[in-house]
Write a structure and sequence with these properties.
Helix content is 37%, strand content 19%. It is an alpha/beta fold.
Length: 437
């Protein structure tokens, strides 16, 4: 209808907005963001009754010179006249006699964005990384009536709604990542689609900035700037682990991490792992410690190989102690008690919990693979670290993570336990104490 053929990743983006209420797209430069935004605006206003589309960005220039210019071009070039009155000023909009409309504006006044109601409303937010939080809060208030949101941006900031849509609140969004290196022009080494990123431009930026520089990461690869973060586990590590999952072989001994929840909203997570591959977890709620132990044995019996005696590492703080006591009675598993509040068994960490989180990071760096799980992904990239007065790494507290995530990071904790390689212990007869070696 609009007279062009979307390229592969653009097709994926357009279809995602048709299928999901909240879509967030981080990308490098010149990957058809503006054309996609204009296409989505016209599609929505032409196919939904009483449709309203709000196009906004971090700056008025971006709305007028980029978004609105592209919208007018697409409207004019449509193979069939689309109708409506197209105004030059974005805030006057494209208006239809029956009340359907597309309007564009940028504002720093939340009240101007609030109160936009209707049965079919679509917010298109360009350069969303630079949009201030009060504007997002006003937009979110409009979602009570069913409004949809799609965000596009180069990932320039490591805070705010756009950043969180790809990290701590990822489970609530359908996310896409499009690198400039994926452009058909870059892959072919010639102009296939005018206007998209080209191979000479990518090579120029690689030489100018360096492939490992934050600028290249953000502007070309579409990654958040790693040097601006104090995250324990970077987003790039998580996404690399996701991409590897189908390819990595699970050929190492079976190990299982168990994070036992209290009754309530928290989850009990049983996470099996074989070497570099984390297998699919088992998630249960509202089970007592005996029932959790039974569920762990079910998982063991389903996954173990002949003659194998898996190690099951249980966080024994709180309710986990009861589950560990139960598992100790079964010779088919090697039950290991892990108290994450104890001192670390390696240097440079304040507590064992800090050591476990950084061990998970190292495992991903070394080729670890994780299955797609939106909650796990959000939990892994969520925690930040600090350095204490003794120069040791200290991961933010579980309570602080829970406040920010709105839940306990049970899945990530269980994966950390599965990855942890605890030192062997012997019983000291003279002292009556366990000794690490």
């Amino acid at each position: 209808m609009l007279g062009y053929e979307p390229w592969e990743r653009q097709q994926e983006l357009l279809l995602a907005v048709a299928e999901h209420e909240r879509v967030s797209v981080r990308s490098g430069h010149k990957v058809s963001k503006s054309r996609s935004a204009g296409s989505l605006a016209l599609w929505f206003v032409m196919t939904f009754a009483a449709a309203r589309v709000i196009m906004t960005s971090a700056s008025a220039r971006q709305v007028k010179s980029i978004l609105w210019k592209e919208l007018k071009l697409l409207h004019r070039m449509a193979r069939v006249p689309l109708g409506g009155v197209m105004h030059e000023a974005p805030d006057a909009g494209l208006q239809f006699p029956d009340g359907r409309e597309i309007v564009g504006f940028s504002t720093d006044q939340p009240e101007r964005m609030a109160g936009i109601s209707g049965a079919n409303v679509l917010f298109i937010i360009d350069e969303a990384s630079g949009v201030e939080e009060p504007i997002f809060e006003a937009i979110e208030g409009n979602r009570a009536g069913g409004a949809r949101i799609v965000m596009f941006s180069n990932p320039t900031r490591t805070s705010g709604t756009f950043y969180e849509s790809h990290t701590a609140k990822r489970e609530f969004w359908h996310t896409l990542h499009i690198s400039s290196e994926e452009s058909p022009n870059v892959k072919a080494g010639q102009i296939i689609i005018p206007g998209l990123a080209t191979r000479p431009w990518v090579e120029e930026k690689r030489l100018e900035w360096g492939e490992n520089s934050p600028l290249y990461d953000v502007r070309v690869k579409g990654n958040f700037p790693s040097q601006a973060e104090n995250a324990v586990i970077g987003l790039a590590l998580v996404e690399a682990g996701l991409r590897r999952w189908e390819e990595v072989n699970a050929d190492a001994p079976l190990e299982i991490g168990v994070d036992v929840a209290r009754f309530g909203d928290d989850e009990t997570v049983i996470w099996p792992r074989r070497g570099a591959k984390a297998l699919q977890p088992t998630i249960v709620r509202s089970l007592n410690t005996i029932e959790v132990a039974g569920k762990v044995l079910e998982v063991v019996r389903e996954l173990r190989r002949e003659g194998e005696r898996p190690r099951v590492k249980v966080d024994v703080i709180g309710y986990g102690a009861g589950t560990f006591d139960q598992l100790q009675q079964f010779k088919e598993v090697e039950a290991v008690a892990v108290n994450v509040a104890e001192r670390a068994t390696a240097e440079n960490y304040a507590k064992l919990r800090d050591q476990l989180w950084f061990a998970c990071r190292d495992w991903l760096k070394e080729g670890g693979a994780i299955p797609a799980d939106a909650k796990l992904e959000a939990e892994l990239v969520g925690p930040v670290y600090s350095i204490d007065t003794q120069g040791r790494y200290k991961v933010e507290s579980k309570d602080d993570m829970k406040k920010r995530l709105g839940r306990s990071p049970d899945r990530a904790d269980a994966l950390c336990l599965a990855i942890y390689n605890p030192p062997k212990r012997s019983f000291g007869v003279s002292s009556g104490a366990f000794m690490d070696y």
